[in-house]
Amino acid sequence: MSGTIPAFVLGGSGYVAGELLRLIAAHPHFALAAVMSESQPGEAVAGAFPHLLSAYPLTRFSSQAEVQKLLCEAPQAAVFSAAPHGVSAGLIDTLLSAAEQAGRQPRVVDISADFRYSTEAAYAAVYPHAHGAPSRLAQFTCALPEHLDKLATPHVSHPGCFATAILLASVPLLASGLISPTLFVSGVTGSTGSGRKPVPGTHHPLRHADLYSYSALAHRHVPEVAACARAASGVEAGFAFVPHSGPFARGIHVTVQAALRRALDTEKLLGILRAFYADAPFVRISAEAPRVKDVVASNHAHLSAVTLSGTVAVMCALDNLTKGAAGGALQWMNRMFALPESAGLTAPAPGWT
């Protein structure tokens, strides 16, 4: 790994971890040091992810003790946690504490929900269990890289996949003062968003050729979206969100609607969005409606917008596993190590998926 930064993946047997491994395999600056799975230590990574056999023909899952030992020895390290909500915080705390005792300062991007809230009380209001590492909350910032120029904490919590799409569509409207701060959101997600463990909502015979809503106006990520939107725009906004399960594996499409505060035509709105994301390498603004197939398996997000009779609608399509999770996390880690933000993430979508 001469000239590279060792990367560690926690929660290694899930879909997001598999996507992280795919991206790290082609990254010019990060090299996989270990992938942790407490349920499968010693088992071949390619057994869980056959599509990654060519990248990791001999790599095996490591135990927590093995990962901890390697972290304590590494002068620098990039840690990606794809461990489940409620587990990730305690695991990160244990590994960071050991590394810090050894004089090491690894950087962490957590993809779970455990560090998306700034206080223990805010977390407890959403999740029915105590936070696993409340003393670490102040060390994490939850934001999209497109919405924060300078990171003030050593670690990052990446917003969820639905949250990523909603925030990309909403924050420019709020920050520009274009809308009343009540937003109505409809979103459709692929089955991989529910994780690897089979549940009725992801069982193919039930999901195929169907479309249905769930957790209408009560989705657990709404408080997270509101908090991130407030931090990015300075506006306290309300989000009425109705998520839907779509009959596809990967991808998210959201439509955000709100009332305009002043007359604005579609062309001017598209110009405002383009100016807002002028320096964002992965956000594309177009007059054409975004399509999920154009972004699946890429780190790109496509947005479009229209206005009519005092109403605005902004549409966003992205890949839930890449831009909404693993790719967004890698984008953050690039910045944390002063690497080009787009390093390892420029591959286009394959199309025709």
Walk me through what this model shows.
With 353 residues, this protein is of the alpha/beta class. It has two domains: 5-142, Rossmann fold (3-Layer(aba) Sandwich); 161-319, Dihydrodipicolinate Reductase, domain 2 (2-Layer Sandwich), CATH 3.30.360.10. 29% of the residues lie in helices and 20% in strands. It contains ten helices and 13 strands. The protein has a seven-stranded mixed beta sheet with strand order 8-9-7-10-13-12-11. A six-stranded parallel beta sheet has the order 2-1-3-4-6-5, sandwiched between helices. Helix 4 (88-101) links the parallel strand 3 (78-81) and strand 4. Helix 3 runs parallel beside helix 4 (88-101). The longest helix has 15 residues, at 161-175. The chain is globular.
Put simply, the count of helices is 10
| Largest sheet entry | 7 strands, mixed
Shape: globular
Radius of gyration: 20 Å
Strand line-up in the sheet with most strands: 8-9-7-10-13-12-11
β-strand number = 13
Q: Using the 3D structure, state the CATH architecture of the largest domain.
A: 2-Layer Sandwich
CATH class annotation of the largest domain: Alpha Beta
What is the CATH superfamily of the largest domain? Dihydrodipicolinate Reductase, domain 2
